[in-house]
Amino acid sequence: MQKFSELPYTRPDIAAAVEEYKRYSEAFKAAKTFEEAKKVFLDAEKLDTHLSTIASLCSIRNTMNTTDEFYEAEMAYLNENLPNLIPAEKAMKEDIVNGPFRADFEKEYGAHFIAVLENDLKTQDERIIPELVKESELSVEYSKAAASCKVDFRGETCNFYGLLKHMESTDREERKEAFEKWANLYEGVSDKLDELYDKLIEVRVEMAKKLGYDNYTELAYRNMGRLDYTPEHVEKFREQIRTVITPAVDRMRKAQAKRLGLDSVKYYDESLTFAGGNADPIGGKDYMVGQATEMYGALSPETKEFFDFMTKYELFDLETRPGKHLGGYCTSLPEYKAPFIFSNFNGTSADVDVLTHEAGHAFQAYLGERLIPIGVLQGSTSEVCEIHSMSMEFFTYPWMDKFFGDRADEYRYAHLCDALAVIPYMACVDEFQHEVYKNPKMTAKERRGVWRSIEKKYMPWRDYDGNAFLENGGFWMQKQHIFLYPFYYIDYALAQICTFFFYDEMKKDRESAWARYLKLCKAGGTLGYFDLLHYVGIPVPFEDGAVEKAVRGVIEEIESAKY
């Protein structure tokens, strides 16, 4: 393999790929034995892997520079043409599920493999190809609109991420000024974002209607691979958050105000944990990657091999720059069995979180692509994948002195607080989306009202200090998942609850906790959500009392800390 920057990109001939896939489908139908059928299936799998790799490479380079006209045009081509593969891919899945070799495939790859294919057949249809293309186009338009936002802040040109470090300043006036600039950026682009979201809602509702669903939420749950639970399960989970976690975070905010010497915490104070300033990394990008190399070398043989591979082939893009897509993510180049980590470093502890959280995703992808032969089973659904990432944040706690020096304990405390405090916000995002798709004709103003009422329910401490845009419900716009990955965000909360169970065991028996974590990563998506949790001995978060049991120790640790 070459370094990432040297990997060649050539536009794929999608029309030719469609014809090739049709030939595979016809050969599959003609197969006389399971071995013949399996060979055709694996040949088609190679084509899938190749196309997925090309699409991933293009997408990464597009997000690295949203102003690059070449990759923008390539993304437009792929978004328009890749859905044309749906009919041929669907035909082969139908042949596996309904054909004479179903039992053989189930024996070879497991019952969950068949369940995944059956679910795909309920979400993939050539009738919705125009809507899928439109959804992709709108998503790209959103990414460009958000990435283009910038503002001058005290002589520095900042995007949203660039302002966040100023919102952690020990100078409250600087924090407030940065907060106002941040809010003004969103307000300035709000009309555009409202328009894009209206169109995204419309196209998603139309897809659901064409496929015979009562509403988009049903289709979205299937798109997310949620085979074990329903919106009713999630609603009960959110109620556990409201009754157990919200009061604890409310107490935490009051303690934070006292620590900072304030009467109460405003929004722009929330991210400042200590009056003397948060623990920030003691070095830049190259220093931190070097320290991460040592950390993963010490953590386990598997993590050493993985991170050495990442650094050897430069599978990172970490620094913020103009025109770069917001946020961070981990993706993969499956043909090379190579994960890729993307982020926007801003000089805060969030940079270190990238080297643990996204590396957790990448570590599982590295293992899955080497241990599991079928792409659809190499990774799991997102509520499991986020356990991989969030747990790695905690497993790396012993090495935080490498990044924060003598303030490592402060970082660990702040990280634990943040891990708990963000869960009610995740519930807000999820309930907001359920309301939006329950009432898809809501106006932009009505949506903001819904957001603000939900926010008060789960985050009663939130105080925007009179900022009219946010007081009227504009804060929802800052979460790109709402635009790009509908209904994803609650998966972070589900995963965090499971991660707290791992964290509790880490403190008692680190080797046992790591063994179970490694077992989960190696299993990939070979089992369903509930079965995977049972496989590694983690309670399902929907069970009565599961949330309270998971967070009890975390709350006690936070409230008994010396800070």
Automatic annotation (TrEMBL):
Keywords: Hydrolase, Metal-binding, Metalloprotease, Protease, Zinc. Its cofactor is Zn(2+). It comes from the Bacteria. The keyword Protease applies. One of its GO terms (molecular function) is metal ion binding. It holds the Pfam family Peptidase_M3. Residues 166-269, 312-545 form the Peptidase M3A/M3B catalytic domain. Binds 1 zinc ion. InterPro entries: Pept_M3A_M3B_dom, Pept_M3B_oligopep-rel. One of its GO terms (biological process) is proteolysis. NCBIfam families: M3_not_pepF. Belongs to the peptidase M3 family. This is M3 family oligoendopeptidase.
